[in-house]
Design brief:
By secondary structure, the protein is of the alpha+beta class. The chain has five helices and ten strands. Strands 1, 2, 3, 4, 5, 6, 7, 8, 9 and 10 form a ten-stranded mixed sheet that branches. β8 and β9 form a beta hairpin. α3 packs across α4.
Length: 247
């Protein structure tokens, strides 16, 4: 028996999120279905670095699973990808020690959120960009990002539907925003993230960009530790789990 670690990417448009659930197909269900075929119908449990919501995408999701199949590691990538739908792809596969865990061993994650900022929508990017028509003040949002960086209790930026036990203190190493043409990208790197945290951060920053809030309100929102203090939750389609880090 050996443990394999895979980096996978997926277009989350047609999935009810990453994690298996009763209603709707999920990325995890497709992965386990493919592995079951490879293991002659035997169930193979997959563990991931974390779950993503319906409509959210991943470029660097990390999973692990145990297998007793005698397949050379270089062949796993092609074999597994061939059994997956075209909107899920295995980027890499490697052997890891039996005590490696995709979720519990993470040391940090990077998320990116993309906005299409133009009067007219882009129909070809509608599943991968949040469309915002209004003019946005990039400098104001950049200033607000500075208040997000560091160690804080991010309760105000966490959905009340969370099942997280314990404190909501996280360390954000980078919060930034930049504009390239009609596209705006928000980048968040941190020790960990709460349920809906990035989407709520983006929703709040977009309110700053529209001048509905001042950048200096961010510390006040953090201090409030109340979800109602922060802005709206941004739509899922602009969000990408970009990279997961390990020691």
């Amino acid at each position: 028996m050996e443990r394999l670690k895979c980096i996978i990417q997926y277009d989350g448009t047609n999935y009810a999120g990453y994690q298996i659930q009763p209603n709707g197909n999920t990325v995890q269900a497709e992965l386990e279905k493919a592995l079951s075929k490879m293991h002659k119908g035997r169930m193979v449990k997959v563990s991931a670095s974390g779950r993503t919501d319906s409509g959210v995408h991943a470029l660097g999701q990390v999973i692990h699973f145990d297998t007793d199949l005698n397949i050379p590691v270089p062949n796993w990538k092609r074999a597994l990808s061939s059994l997956l739908p075209s909107d899920i792809h295995v980027s890499s596969v490697e052997n890891v020690s039996r005590d490696f865990h995709a979720r519990y061993d993470t040391t940090g994650k990077e998320y990116r959120y993309y906005v299409w900022n133009d009067r007219e929508p882009n129909v070809f990017k509608r599943h991968f960009r949040c469309h915002v028509k209004a003019d946005l003040d990039i400098a104001a949002m950049q200033k607000a990002c500075q208040f997000i960086e560091g160690q804080h209790d991010f309760t105000s930026f966490c959905s009340p539907r969370t099942d997280i036990k314990g404190d909501k203190i996280r360390v954000i190493h980078e919060a930034s925003v930049q504009k390239e043409g009609e596209e705006i990208v928000f980048i968040f790197r941190g020790s960990g993230f709460l349920y809906n945290m990035v989407r709520i951060l983006v929703g709040t920053l977009l309110e700053v960009g529209r001048h509905d809030r001042d950048p200096e309100e961010i510390p006040v929102i953090i201090e409030a530790k109340e979800r109602e203090a922060a802005g709206k939750t941004a739509p899922p389609q602009g969000l990408f789990l970009w990279k997961v880090s390990y020691d």
